[in-house]
Amino acid sequence: MPELPEVEVVRRGLHEHIVGRTVAGVAVHNLRAARRNTAGPLPDLLPGATVTGTARRGKYAWLVLDDEDALLMHLGMSGQLLVVPADAPGAVHERARFTFTDGGPDLSFVDQRTFGHLLLDRGGAGLPAPIAHIARDPLDPEFDQDAVVARIRRRRTGLKRALLDQSVVSGIGNIYADEALWRARLHGGRPTERLTRAEVNRTLDAAREVMTAALEQGGTSFDALYVNVNGASGYFDRSLNAYGQRDRPCPRCGTPIVREQFMNRSSYSCPTCQPRPRNPR
Length: 281
Fold this sequence. Notes:
Blueprint (H helix, E strand, L loop, with lengths): L3 H15 L4 E6 L13 H4 L5 E7 L2 E6 L3 E6 L4 E6 L9 E7 L5 E6 L5 E5 L23 H10 L4 H6 L9 H11 L12 H20 L41 E5 L2 E5 L12
Antiparallel strand pairs: 1-6, 2-3, 3-4, 4-8, 5-7, 6-7, 9-10
Helix pairs in contact: 1-6, 3-6, 5-6
């Protein structure tokens, strides 16, 4: 699933290509693309609206419409928002298409697995109501790290589980959690209530550093499912130190990286640099 850097890359592309343009029409080819939208049919509601801005909270991005409403967009596992020529045929998995009054490029929502969705929130330009529960992320200028550190230390869970909890800190997914933990030299199973403030601060600082680095390289692409609005892949996967590096030498100490089962997915860590706790959560 695209994480904060990938969604931010897409948001920046949307801001560059879509802001200032007025929607002429919307075609929804698959109703699953708008399955969570309760405001009414998008083809009836969006024409005539002008995109006046873009925003993001964690892994969600949205278009600001007429400085008032929000068209919330979540990419799910395979969603893509592509700026395409107005006369370009729809992709095989195109779920929705937006045209604009200036006759310029269209915006195509492509989603192979149909886990992503589009949702109109009236009055949600500042923060759409459906994602009001999602916490700020480490790249947010208003991120209160001291408060997040205290919140994590009050919980009784594993450190990686806390990093993935979007109500605690948003934007961090499996890839960047593993990379942040590797940088912080901490195992994801460390009980949060036993961590020091310095250890949690170190982890959040590492998450910020690794996501900033990924953002500079266009995000992480393991396949063709994540691309920016122009269809280009990111290349941060070449800089990963832990995630997906099973049996490869740790860049820091040379010990082979190990893979462990974690919440129906995988975790990667260095057994020397990130020793497993005796009593993990």
